[in-house]
Amino acid sequence: MSDETRDAELKAVQAALAAEHAAVYGYGVVGGRIGTDRRTEAQSAYDAHRARRDALVREVRDLGGEPVASSAGYALPFPVADPAAAVRLAAEMEDRVAGVYADLVRSASGARRASAAGALREAAVRAVRWRGESVAFPGLAERAGGNAGTATPSDIAPAAASASATPTA
Questions:
Q1: Which one, 18, 37, 141, 162, has least CB within 10 Å?
Q2: Tell me: the pLDDT tens digits for 74-115?
Q3: Which pairs count as long-range contacts for 82-89, CB under 8 Å and 24+ apart, including other chains?
């Protein structure tokens, strides 16, 4: 693997790791607001994102990089005050994670590419479950006709260093 290819792949793996950090944080918020009827689903998604995050930490190290750290807090894309907003946040996070994994699929090869494709599929399926409907091209905003999936880790952005770790709109 050339240095240029490795650097591009490392950058995409780091972006996926950052997205997983944000998703783990976001599911903490979802879990606190979600209705009891969907709490198991939220816990399952939280666990899946934690497992992906941990695997990506190892992949970054395998590529010779230093894993990007999780932020102390993240600003949410909108207020999450009730179960309906928690469901919307979960679907939005999965769309964003799918977008980052689509970028990793484009940058990677071999087993890493297959793993990224699996992660993209899992995020797209979770988004459908949360939303109740699918998008035409999960992870590809330019093809989906909406804001599903982008090259940024998510709309959940690290909170400013001076900001509280409490979720904000």
A1: 162
A2: 999 999 999 999 999 999 999 999 999 999 999 999 999 999
A3: 82/33, 83/33, 83/34, 83/35, 83/38, 85/33, 86/29, 86/30, 86/32, 86/33, 86/34, 86/35, 86/42, 87/30, 87/34, 87/38, 87/130, 87/131, 88/130, 89/26, 89/29, 89/30
